[in-house]
Amino acid sequence: MFVPSIIYAVFIISLGYFVILTAFYLFLALIGSFEGIRRESQGEGEDYPLFYLSTLKLSVSIIMPARNEEEWISDSLKSLINLNYPEFEIIVVNDGSTDKTLEKLNDLLDLKPIDLVYVRHYKDGKVNEILRSEKYPNVTVINKESGHKKAGAANAGLNIARYDYICVMDADTVLERDSLLKVMAQVDKDPDKIIGVGSYFGLVNGCKIKDGMIVDHSFSYNPVIAYQNIEYMRSLIGNRLAWSKYNAMPNVAGGFGVWRKDILYELGGYSVDFTCEDIEFTFRAHDYMAKHKEKGYKILMLPYHVGWTEGPSNIKSLILQRNRWQRVVDETIWHYKYMIFNPKYGFFAFLVLPYFLLYEVLGIFMEVISLIFVTAGWIMGVLEINVFLAYLCFMLLSQAFSSLLCILSFVEGQRLFRIKYVMYLVALTLVEFFWYRWFISLAKLTGTVDFLRRKRTYDMYVRAKRA
Amino acid sequence: MYNYYAGTIWAVNAVLLLLVIATSAVIYFSAAFKERLWQVRRRALLEIKRDIYEVVLSGKATSGSVCQPFIDNITPQQFIDIATNRSIDAAFFNKSEQQLIKNCFNSPEKAEGFVKIAKTAKNKWRRIEAMLCLGYANITSTIDLLDKALSSRDEDVVYFAMISLAQIKTVGSAKALLGFLRSRPSNSYKVASILSGFPKDIADEVIKLTADKDPEVRLSAVTILSKFASGHHIKKLGSLAWDVSAEVRAAACDCLGNIGAKEMLVECLKDSSWLVKRHAILALEKAIGAGAVPEVIGLINDASWSVVDAVKDVMTVHIKESLPYIEKFISGEDYIPKKYSIIVLKNSLKSLDPSTKAQVIGILSKTDSG
Lengths: 467, 370
What we know:
The complex is a heterodimer. By secondary structure, chain A is of the alpha/beta class. Chain A has helices at residues 2-45, 48-53, 73-81, 101-109, 149-160, 179-187, 223-245, 261-266, 278-291, 315-335, 347-361, 363-379, 385-413, 419-431, 436-452, and strands at 60-66, 88-95, 111-113, 127-133, 139-144, 165-169, 173-175, 194-203, 208-210, 213-216, 256-260, 298-309. Chain A has a domain at 59-314: Spore Coat Polysaccharide Biosynthesis Protein SpsA, Chain A (Alpha-Beta Complex). Chain B is built from 21 helices and no strands. Chain B is extended, with a radius of gyration of 31 Å.
């Protein structure tokens, strides 16, 4: 009697869990769709030349930490140099690369050492030299030793950043020419209130790049990449746009994110104690603003495709990356647990944090345990095959439906993917349950175990060689 | 045995399956519709471009009759596409092509149509589109309508009313924007950003705002003035250099620098705020160039590093005039002036003429870091 009772309890709880999850995704997708359409309409009507030519400029320091990025550094840097923005500087931080990253930088920039007063305000690690480009006077390179993860490298850039806004991005990200213009034009609407902004970026895998520009948007049909495209839509468009509407953005992604410098200064820059810096810093910013009773502040998510980043192209690399992502979610939620259901933090405490706790942190246990119990129930004869299959079908369909809602939100707002590719993604959602999902579950599980084992390293997967 | 609700779950699965199929179909049609819509938009813009080209080639570009087909056929969306080149992937319109269409649309007949949409359309984005058309067509008679839109409850309507007024660069539209700035100082940055692109005629309107009670409004007014201020505003700006708000005083210093008010700026150097001192130093350099060095050099010992940094910048730019002071600092005992003097010498080495360079190397060789 005891075993069937347990199986029954797990069965009912997990069923309830997936029903709530599906309803929640439906809610997020609807809100995200409306918010996406609104933001796209705002972007359509925006007068960018007016913003560009204004004498009151929102100047931006772009910081690009780079560690062993010889494959990408030239293209990502060229995309920055070609940015269509009135005033910006580029700070590349070579974070102890052991490959040819620095040589490539030198070839492109013609670097010369400069004597700059380096005030160590943020925790950064040992800086060996600061170089400036002879060709492009707005490009500076900091050559430092590794050891403080990406956060330390970003902090090193912060130490010499001159402008009021800081854009931190990945060295494997190629930006669109108008990316900064589109994002900062939104900040320009209310720079006193807007403290941070993120925007959509997709996967570059498959696209053809020439001199830092995407010349052919032919997205990869490799299912590992295509599934990641769906996940990016789910995360950046489906979820974050909706959170942003309620000013509860949980993560200004490290691939491309803009912060007001005074906020970074007040918060002491990025933390080197966490596996990754982006989500933790976003939580800290919410925490700081709430504690200082700064009402009306905004952290925005925008649907404009600002750039393209490289995604892992094989399962091994994918698991390594997702393991790291899971660890940082666990670390952050654990660190900021006092914010959950604390009225001081508004929607962030009552919507985002419970979601993160239930689905991002504990969700993996729910999935695995429910599947084990239901399968065991069927094997032990407690569950009929009819019930077992109905349950699996429900898991499959609820997930497919959630993914399709996000694709729909994305398609409504953007004209990025060709119809053939969109339908390929639709087809993939129907079979996600049979394989991809379980690799992600495995990565989440190992990530959680590594978190409990206090692993805090920033593991980088090996970059694929580019043709 | 428990009842595991198999029937209910299968029923839910059937609903989910239907939803999955329906959503997939909607995605397909939505993507196809978007792609088709884009092709139509692109083709239409290319046709307009071809028509404009033909008009220009025929030499009738200035004649009134050429406008009628454009007025009749171009939609508000296409007009904005042309005026802003926002659909550059489809077609690019150069300045003269844009101007031709803008002139055509600046007609009472077209204005009436846009005003009607801006007032009555149920869809907010259609109203906004009509407002933008009024702005891009430079229809000055509709400033009142746009002014009213600035008091809308909808943030998007307010914002795009500002953008529309930004296109009509007249004293009238500036007045509307300044009135908005006064009523909603929280939007001051955007208004100041817009007005900084207006012609100088608006300076007298802006100067009225410098007497406002709200420091944020005064700050915005001074910020806008930094582009327009001329000699006859010097008295008013001089009084703002003693404003209660340090930010306003600092912005006033920037203005004074633009109009070359040396005496007032020298007074500003005695301000108690580091922000004002910093701005005064840089403004003085802008106003009188190398002549600023003897005035600001005393602040190298200031308690604020920001002020010292500004002095360092002035010394670096005017290294020749700074050398006598630098030599004195280097041979002296004070740590800060000594340290900054060495930095200035090192930073300026590359841009110096040979004789000054030799002089600098001579001074540097006497120091520990030489």
